[in-house]
Design goal:
α1 crosses α2 and α3 crosses α4. A 3-stranded antiparallel sheet has the order 1-2-5. By secondary structure, the chain is α+β, with helices and mostly antiparallel strands. β1 and β2 form a beta hairpin. It is built from 4 helices and 5 strands. It has 2 domains: 40 residues; 58 residues, IHF-like DNA-binding proteins (HU Protein, Chain A), CATH 4.10.520.10.
Length: 98
């Protein structure tokens, strides 16, 4: 699913113009990005949570030459799905545990 597909779904839900749907989707994405940039955790019940993880510096290898390359520390976004979402994606496993 692309961002345009998501805008179409939001627009189809109500009496909204395409521009209104774009504003809604952009606002949600910008809110998530802004919260992660400021170090906050986002939790959407029944869907999952977003947070930032710190990766330590490490020594990598250039796959073409095999030369050692220092990879600096960095922050990466991380998504953890909720139990409800995992059960919806894997209905067979959910039935086994129930």
């Amino acid at each position: 699913m692309t961002k345009a597909d998501l805008v179409e779904k939001v627009t189809a839900l109500g009496d909204l113009t395409r521009r209104d749907g774009e504003v809604i989707v952009e606002t949600i994405f910008n809110s998530v990005i802004g919260a992660l940039q400021s170090g906050d955790k986002i939790e959407i019940r029944g869907f999952g949570s977003f947070r930032i993880r710190q990766r330590n510096p490490r020594i990598g290898r250039n796959p073409k030459t095999g030369a050692r390359v220092e990879v600096p520390a960095k922050k990466v976004p991380y998504f953890k799905p909720s139990k409800e979402l995992r059960d919806l994606v894997n209905p067979d496993e959910a039935a086994k545990t129930a």
